[in-house]
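U., I forgot to send this yesterday:
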Amino acid sequence: MEPTENQSLNSNAAPSALLAQNVAAVAQLEAAERARLSASERFSDVVARAAGTGWFAALHVAWFAVWIAWNSELVRGWRPFDPLPFAFLTLIVSLEAIFLSIFVLISQNSLTRLSERRAQLDLQINLLAEQESSKTVALLERIAQQLHVPVPEDPCDSELASPTDIRDVVSTLEGVQPGETQRVAKSAKGVAGNDPKPKFERPRRG
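Result:
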């Protein structure tokens, strides 16, 4: 009996246990990071989020329109309290811009720390994955030797089987100028394209 369309959609929508575990772990890390924020940082985040909304801009448009109409004698019976050139309004807007900039900078600093922590986490995970890959390549080489499987010689095999030293990677990147990065990449690609592909030989049956 073939599954129906709804059943297939439900099976695809249901997350796996490993995916749910990873999402829960990331959510716990995010919650722990937010719990370490100070009161000023939390208040700055609230102000920064509110300042980036449409209703905040609409509120200012309405405020400025009423203020200018009131103090420009456009409406009869409204006595101006801040005539042209609206010095009091300029003072209020300038103070608002100063404090709003401070709150946004505080919020950006907290986001920068969170981004740096995520980058460190990505780096550590990538290093662990690279070490696991190196161990896997070395293990496959030993298995091929034990089974006497003919493997074409490749000078990159020894490099792939050995762990990568991040100090060598950093020193190599620092030795290349920013403008020379694309040139080095193109030259390396050209050299790789000119290399003949190794041919796999089948073992002869005795």
